Amino acid sequence: MASITGSAISFAAPALRRSQAVNKLSSLNSVSFFSARKSFPSIGSAPLRLQISCAAKKETLDKVCEIVKKQLALADGTAVTGESKFTELGADSLDTVEIVMGLEEAFEISVDEGSAQEIATVQDAADLIEQLVEAKA
């Protein structure tokens, strides 16, 4: 699932053909384009920004939420969403390691230590899993 945010579409390197830009973007998780052009009369002279980000599938996010709830022994009524931060859910560093181990087992992947340290939210974990599963295939 991809989402696009921004006020206008503008490429920082206009010499790139569309196909080259698409090929360069296809392997990235998040991309930002900046332009200081003033060729958009309706927007004025403000710099433009476009951000494209790919989010994990709903099924992956739901499975990660369930694993996090189980690993942290959260009450049934506790809401866990993609925006939930592990620290806000009461996880310490050991809990986070156990969550990552549970995710590795459930999705049959291996998460390197550097990537594991960058996980702060449930969505971060789901996005990383999508990347690793795709790379494994």
TrEMBL record:
Domain Carrier per the UniProt entry, residue ranges: 58-133
Cited HAMAP family: Acyl_carrier (MF_01217)
PROSITE patterns: CARRIER (PS50075), PHOSPHOPANTETHEINE (PS00012)
Domain of life: Eukaryota
Family classification: Belongs to the acyl carrier protein (ACP) family.
A Gene Ontology molecular function term of the record: phosphopantetheine binding
Record keywords, A-Z: Chloroplast, Fatty acid biosynthesis, Fatty acid metabolism, Lipid biosynthesis, Lipid metabolism, Phosphopantetheine, Phosphoprotein, Plastid, Transit peptide
Task performed by this protein: Carrier of the growing fatty acid chain in fatty acid biosynthesis.
NCBIfam families per UniProt: acyl_carrier
Subcellular location: Plastid, Chloroplast
Coiled coil: none
Source organism phylogeny: Eukaryota, Viridiplantae, Streptophyta, Embryophyta, Tracheophyta
UniProt name for this protein: Acyl carrier protein
GO cellular component, one term: chloroplast
